[in-house]
């Protein structure tokens, strides 16, 4: 599975910087974020990645459907931007629980897809709904399992509405293997990072480089590959320490880990977690 | 549903102090922890709660089955202690993932139950396996959903191996309503606290008093009651601010919230979470 670098992994890199980093390190694809793309310019970004020979494995992100404003206009713009970039999918973050009504919040995700799926189909853009770790259910993502994301996607053709399989969000799920198999062609994006302990104060930044934590990424990658997934494995890490490193150091590290089955290069192999008594 | 005060909610209270707090505030049951019980003495604790007319809704805790040492001897002692206290159940925390093999860790929970269930049956003690929020999967609890806990309990009689339904751990689960119904007589303990945002630096302490967060506790309590559950609703909150308050203030607050359907007494009603854009 070929490697892609999500721009958030080198958060301080501008669009031309992340493109250069990919090219210099032989990474054939990039996952882009809307804000830095807007800053550099949508058309300029499209031209730059094309001339660099990079694929855009994903655009992050649309979604946030659960508030009073379902943000449908903004999501239509995100679909247009994905089309302009030739992106392989638009990642959709569901949104949190604005009050205590989790069931209603989940219905709002379903109703937003009803509106956006036809729009995306016309634009030739694949929507990738992201099930999010239950830790984010209250404030970010009410779609909590891959199975639930697949049920929300089910009314639509697989090439229009699919899912993101992000290792951090789904690794704990007892139904994971069965649901990855069931997802089949609906896997529009496969993202990796690692679950590290202890979590930092801001859990949103609690992501390690693949190989630094507790997730069996080799096993999960095999499961995803067995579905016939022919996209990229995109590394998306939100981590202050990683952000503080030079971009090329991060990219070279990821290329090396990717080649060795996500083994971090440290003496003594992986850190093992002691079981808390 | 009658109220019980888990000792951890007033963490700095000794056994006689928590017993006094319950009696003074008209709380008819207490959830005890093994360390303070050992400190005060097992037989003295049993005599004290009996003479105070309190029930022991749970003893926390056994489990931690996933390490090299499955801690079976310690768990047998915990079963004996539960019997000595007349506790309604022994809470079992599954344990985390000592390496990257989550499937093996889950098997170790199953194999520990095979040994402990007959021992508990002989002692007349109910084991209550606690599914834990997936946020704790790596370092504390590999049983991540109520459905998974029920599958682990299924080989045994309901009065021997059941589950804890702790609102914090299960509130996000899309299968929750169905699984609570399915649990029926296997619900040996019902615990409440609330999910607050943002989470504090130590997520283990990220629990609010019931009514202060995002969980629909009224809805969940109805679901649990509809199974015929006739035990207590036990408040278990790990929270530094709550621990800093006088014990009686916490207890009186809980009695009031319990009586009003977990409404916190603040002007303007509940805080509502803005959906993060």
TrEMBL record, chains A, B:
Pfam families annotated for this entry? AP_endonuc_2
Q: Which residues cross the membrane?
A: none
Alphabetical UniProt keywords? Isomerase
Q: Which SUPFAM superfamilies match?
A: Xylose isomerase-like (SSF51658)
Q: Which GO terms describe its molecular function?
A: isomerase activity
> Where does the Xylose isomerase-like TIM barrel domain lie?
20-244
The name on file for this protein is Sugar phosphate isomerase/epimerase
Tell me the organism: Saccharothrix carnea
């Amino acid at each position: 599975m070929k490697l892609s670098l999500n721009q958030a992994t080198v958060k301080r890199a501008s669009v031309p910087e992340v493109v250069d980093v990919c090219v210099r390190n032989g990474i054939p694809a990039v996952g882009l974020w809307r804000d830095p793309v807007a800053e550099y310019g949508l058309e300029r970004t499209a031209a730059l990645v094309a001339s660099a020979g990079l694929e855009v494995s994903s655009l992050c992100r649309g979604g946030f459907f659960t508030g009073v404003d379902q943000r449908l206009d903004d999501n239509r713009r995100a679909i247009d931007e994905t089309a302009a970039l030739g992106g392989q999918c638009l990642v959709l973050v569901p949104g949190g629980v604005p009050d205590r009504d989790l069931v209603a919040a989940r219905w709002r995700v379903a109703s937003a897809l009803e509106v956006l799926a036809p729009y995306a189909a016309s634009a030739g853009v694949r929507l990738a709904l992201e099930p999010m770790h239950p830790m984010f259910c209250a404030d970010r993502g009410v779609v909590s399992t891959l199975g639930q994301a697949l049920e929300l996607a089910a009314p639509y053709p697989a090439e229009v509405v699919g899912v993101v399989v992000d290792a951090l969000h789904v690794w704990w799920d007892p139904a994971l293997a069965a649901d990855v198999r069931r997802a089949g062609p609906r896997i529009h994006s496969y993202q990796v990072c690692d679950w590290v302990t202890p979590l930092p104060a801001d859990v949103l930044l609690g992501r390690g480089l693949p190989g630094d934590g507790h997730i069996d990424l080799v096993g999960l990658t095999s499961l995803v590959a067995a579905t016939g997934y022919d996209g990229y494995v995109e590394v998306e890490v939100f981590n202050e320490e990683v952000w503080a490193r030079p971009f090329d150091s991060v990219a070279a590290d990821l290329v090396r880990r990717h080649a060795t089955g996500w083994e971090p290069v440290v003496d003594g192999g992986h850190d093992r977690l002691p079981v808390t008594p």
